[in-house]
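Predict the assembly for these two chains.
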Amino acid sequence: MMALRERAIVSPQSVPSLPKHVRIQHDPVRQAFAVLSPEKIFWPNDISLDILRRCDGRSTVGHIIADLAAEYDAEQEAVAADVVAFLQEWSDKLLVKL
Amino acid sequence: MSEPLLPPIGMLAELTHRCPLQCPYCSNPLELLKANRELDTQTWLDLFLQAADLGVLQVHLSGGEPTLRRDLEQLIAGLSARGVYTNLITAGVGIAEGRIEAFAEAGLDHLQLSFQGARPATTDRIGNHKGGHEKKLETARRARAAGLPLTINAPIHRHNIEEVPEFIDLALSLGAERLEIANVQYAGWALTNRDQLMPERDAVERQAEIVAAARERLTGIMNIDFVPPDYFAIYPKPCMGGWARDAFMVTPDGTVLPCHAAQTIPSLSFERFGPRSLADIWTDSPAFNAFRGTDWMQQPCRSCERREIDWGGCRCQAMAIAGDAAATDPACAKSPIHGRMAMLIDEAQRAAAVPSKDEQFVYRRIGVVTEPA
């Protein structure tokens, strides 16, 4: 029997990763990075890509936020809100595993 | 052309028309191709490489039943080596032991499994294949055990529309990430069986409510894609995302088509891969250019603010119902003959209400229909 699945909610301790059916790939024809999933293809902007690339199954959300805040020289709180909202949306579409 | 030609992004490869099931709504043409007309392994591999060069990122391996091709592992491996995302669309009956694991090993990204019913009796009756349901359950379990992500596809019509809640439970119990509740489109065999398949209005409304509630409830647990029945619609579907806009399909003999039913448009002729390169066909084929963009449109499409949302809807439905492939899809409320859709629904209801009416489907079989109906 399979355990009943539940909706995952993003927390600073979550360790996001890309599920097996989702992958980021550079497309030489369109010169852009594509996110490939079963029926849909997404074209994330630079910031979304920076988040998705850090979903490596090792880094916590807290760590990802600190890392991005340092890289973009931005307020941690502002980055946190954006990252959490983004990851929750992608988790809800089953494109990111928490 | 009013806009620049885009590279194709998706390709549906119908590897074979052979299939153990006989679903009366199959999207394959009425004139099915026999095995001796199928492209060989090397030609498919060449075609896949040309597709990838052209910009295709995703290939859906379909049929018929694609697992009847003994070289499927090789085809998946070829695509995978080139970085193309592969989706296997299977009926999931009669797949030999060890093959699903071999597909996964070859690099398959995702598996889509059809269920004709949520109940065994329904699945077996619609597919006209005894024991089919049980085999599908086994295929789902093997796919999950092999670590493959899973979509359950449920084609919906009059005879299983009440099973929608059970389809949702079934997909959850099988560990699917995705469920497609896809109401049958009346092309191919489904057009032949339209009166038998047309659901009732009340059932269509109930279904929409059930799906909306389930989507809400299952956010973050399972994705549900819903394809509503377009005879009941206000706006048409943007068929294939627009004719020859970013996707195409290939039949078992290598004929390259903008959509499943394109061969029902008698004014068009289609070209085969081999004699011509895929790039040539995509760019220059008169059939691909016939309904590309918006220049071909008549009124009311031409001046409609939705013309680049719907792309005029389905050309084949316009052909089948309006008798003109360049007409507005009659599914659109703005079509002058939109009322004909309601008449066709009512006609089907009346046919179904007569108890003595022969309830037999025309099951999909090679040689049943030799001329397009």
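Chain A has a mean pLDDT of 92. The interface with chain B takes residues 2, 5-8, 19-21, 23, 25, 27, 29-30, 34, 36, 38-39, 41, 91-94 of chain A (CB under 8 Å).
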